[in-house]
């Protein structure tokens, strides 16, 4: 049976890739997104997508019966890497639009993704959704360390690790930008990456890290990603990851985001989902009666 899906904060539509990989047939896929570049990439790859625009403008009376509601509401307010404004951040308050549409559509199944956050705010989300989240690290299926919480009312089985590392996804023949090693003032070696300093002030910034080929990259950021994602090659060179390599970190098909500027590609990839994690979750629907 084909299902109707409503995807909120759809981005570049990683949800559709995951549904396709899980073998779940979709009748109508309704997407709520406002970023024109993400919409462009979605329509390039899935031209039948029905775009609804701003989540606050969705009128559920105009939609058919929704079987599956999915979304990853903006996480900047909850992230430990940000200012931690939590629900005071207008982007994070969009979670309540997810709650509104969950109540109005009353789907058989739902999935919400967000960052690891303070227990008290995690509890608020859990109370609203009526389920507890499952914490999954993307490193189980990719060469990226990315901790995310998944609230769902479908069975989520344990993921068998695939043992994928940066050396498995890097194209050693790719054209890329490299850091000028002569400008590095100081370096610090860690287990996961080489920290380096270009200013001479000893400031350890996230955008001056190069991850080891034999390990995994840190969480892809959703902004300024083009300057923050680097790998340390055996030659000692520090090279920026290409958009295709970042797609691989998110288990997105090669060149899925092709068609917009590199800056927009990096941004939407960082904002996206690790597709194979979502695919694993969606496979829990195959034995359900949707």
Q: Class by helix and strand content?
A: alpha/beta
Beta-strand share of residues: 15-25%
Helix residue percentage:
25-40%
Distance between the termini: 8 Å
Q: Quote the average pLDDT.
A: 92
Write down the CATH topology of the largest domain: Rossmann fold
Q: What is the count of helical runs?
A: 9
Number of domains: 2
CATH class of the largest domain, named Alpha Beta
Count the strands? 12
Largest sheet: 7 strands, mixed
Whole-number radius of gyration?
19 Å
Low confidence ranges: none
Shape: elongated
Lateral strand order in the biggest sheet: 3-2-1-4-5-7-6
Give the name of the CATH architecture of the largest domain.
3-Layer(aba) Sandwich
Secondary-structure element pattern, one letter each: EHEHEEHEHEEHEEEHEEHHH
What is the topological layout?
Elements: E1 3-8, H1 14-22, E2 26-32, H2 36-45, E3 50-51, E4 68-71, H3 95-105, E5 109-115, H4 119-129, E6 134-137, E7 147-152, H5 166-169, E8 186-189, E9 193-197, E10 209-212, H6 225-228, E11 230-232, E12 238-240, H7 243-249, H8 262-271, H9 275-282
Parallel strand pairs: 1-2, 1-4, 2-3, 4-5, 10-11
Antiparallel strand pairs: 5-7, 6-7, 8-9, 9-10, 11-12
Helix pairs in contact: 1-9
């Amino acid at each position: 049976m084909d299902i109707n899906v409503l995807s909120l904060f759809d981005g570049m539509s990683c949800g559709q890739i995951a549904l396709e990989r899980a073998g779940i047939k979709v009748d109508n896929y309704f997407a709520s997104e406002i970023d024109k570049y993400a919409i462009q990439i979605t329509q390039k790859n899935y031209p039948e997508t029905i775009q609804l625009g701003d989540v606050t403008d969705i009128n559920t009376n105009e939609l058919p019966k929704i079987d599956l509601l999915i979304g990853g509401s903006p996480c900047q307010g909850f992230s430990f890497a940000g200012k931690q404004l939590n629900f005071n951040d207008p982007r994070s308050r969009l979670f309540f639009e997810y709650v509104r549409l969950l109540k109005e559509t009353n789907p058989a199944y739902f999935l919400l993704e967000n960052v690891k956050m303070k227990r008290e705010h995690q509890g608020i989300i859990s109370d609203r959704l009526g389920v507890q989240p499952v914490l999954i690290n993307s490193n189980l299926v990719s060469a990226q360390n990315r901790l995310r919480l998944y609230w769902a009312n479908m069975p989520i089985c344990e993921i068998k690790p695939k043992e994928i590392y940066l050396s498995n996804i890097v194209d050693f023949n790719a054209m890329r930008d490299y850091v000028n090693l002569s400008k590095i003032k100081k370096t610090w070696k860690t287990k996961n990456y080489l920290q380096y300093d270009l200013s001479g002030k000893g400031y350890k910034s996230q955008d001056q890290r190069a991850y080891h080929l034999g390990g995994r990259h840190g969480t892809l950021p959703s902004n300024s990603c083009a300057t923050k994602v680097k790998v340390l090659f055996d030659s000692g060179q520090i090279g920026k990851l290409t958009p295709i390599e970042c797609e691989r970190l998110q288990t997105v098909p090669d060149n899925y985001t092709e068609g917009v500027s590199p800056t927009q590609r990096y941004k939407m990839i960082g904002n996206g989902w690790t597709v194979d994690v979502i695919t694993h979750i969606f496979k829990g629907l195959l034995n359900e009666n949707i």
